[in-house]
């Protein structure tokens, strides 16, 4: 019984962490970093790009929704947008 409660608390905690104000870094990463455009949660990320380079996407409940918005905004980057490994690990392809 106590294990069930612990798991539920983990799920709620994860959801709280993911809710946030998402941004896209329009400066392409170098090839060693994958050559991607990185999606970040500006509320939690310890490695945010310079604010002047951030494209604001808005407030989303998780990185997957923010990713959809990023692809809708910039369709030409759709295959290159990747979640930041620090703040959007569920959307990070590596
Ligand atoms: Zn990040």
Q: Any idea how many domains?
A: 1
Number of helical stretches of at least 4 residues = 2
Q: What's the β-strand tally?
A: 4
Strand arrangement, major sheet? 3-1-2-4
Helicity range: 25-40%
**Ligand species:** zinc ion
Query: What is the approximate shape?
Result: globular
The structure class reads: alpha+beta
Biggest β-sheet strands, sense, barrel: 4 strands, mixed
Distance between the termini: 37 Å
Radius of gyration: 14 Å
SSE order: HEEEHE
- Percent of sequence in beta strands: 15-25%
Overall mean confidence score, pLDDT: 86
Walkthrough of the structure:
The chain has 94 residues and is α+β, with helices and mostly antiparallel strands. It has one domain. 30% of the residues lie in helices and 20% in strands. Strands 3-1-2-4 form a four-stranded mixed beta sheet. The chain is globular. The N and C termini lie far apart (37 Å). The mean pLDDT is 86. Bound molecules: zinc ion. The site of zinc ion has 6 residues, from loops.
Summarize the structure.
By secondary structure, the protein is of the alpha+beta class.
Which features does this protein show?
94 residues; globular; 2 helices; four-stranded mixed beta sheet; 30% helix; alpha+beta; binds zinc ion
């Amino acid at each position: 019984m106590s294990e069930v409660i612990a798991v539920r608390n983990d799920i709620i905690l994860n959801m709280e962490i993911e809710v946030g104000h998402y941004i896209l870094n329009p400066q392409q990463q170098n090839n060693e970093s994958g050559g991607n455009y990185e999606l970040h949660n500006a509320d939690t990320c310890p490695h945010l790009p310079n604010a002047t380079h951030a494209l604001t996407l808005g407030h989303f409940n998780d990185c997957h929704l923010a990713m959809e918005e990023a692809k809708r905004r910039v369709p030409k980057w759709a295959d290159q947008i990747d979640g930041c490994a620090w703040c959007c690990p569920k959307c990070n392809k590596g």
